[in-house]
Amino acid sequence: MLAIQIENIRLRCIVGVYPRERYRRQPLRIDLRLLYADTAIIRQDDIAVGMDYAHITRDVQRWASEGRFQTIEALAGSLAHRLGSDYPQIAEVQITIRKPRALSGRAVAGVVYSWQPATD
C-alpha cells in the first residue's frame, strides 16, 4: 500500500445550514490521504504515473469554493467523488474536513470520510 498525504489545505466556501452561513464563505481545513491503485510510481520514479500534490490541492480548493453545501459531510462526499473520477491512480480517498468556527470556544467540528471509487 502506498498513499500520499496532503494536510491543512485552507479554503473558504459556502457551507452551513444557518441563514448567515448561506451567503458568507466559511473557513475550512482539509486533510487528504490518497491511496495509490498500484505502486508504479515507486518502480518508475516518474510523475506521469504519480499524482501532482500541487495540482490536487488547487483542484480541491477550486471545487470546494465553486460549490454550495449545507453540510461538511456533503462537501466531503463531493470532493472524494471528484478526486476518484479525475485521478484514476486513486484506489481510496480519505478526507478530513474541519470547520473551525462551527462551535463556540476552542472546539472544532469535523468529519472524516473514506471512499473507494471501485465500490461506487
Automatic annotation (TrEMBL):
It is an enzyme of class 4 (lyase). Residues 4-115 form the Dihydroneopterin aldolase/epimerase domain. Keywords: Folate biosynthesis, Lyase. It catalyses: 7,8-dihydroneopterin = 6-hydroxymethyl-7,8-dihydropterin + glycolaldehyde. GO terms for biological process: folic acid biosynthetic process. The keyword Nucleus does not apply. It holds the Pfam family FolB. Its EC number is 4.1.2.25. Pathway: Cofactor biosynthesis; tetrahydrofolate biosynthesis; 2-amino-4-hydroxy-6-hydroxymethyl-7,8-dihydropteridine diphosphate from 7,8-dihydroneopterin triphosphate: step 3/4. GO terms for cellular component: cytoplasm. GO terms for molecular function: dihydroneopterin aldolase activity. It comes from the Bacteria. InterPro entries: Dihydroneopterin_aldolase (IPR006156), FolB_dom (IPR006157), GTP-CH-I_C/QueF (IPR043133). Belongs to the DHNA family. NCBIfam families: folB_dom (TIGR00526). This is dihydroneopterin aldolase.
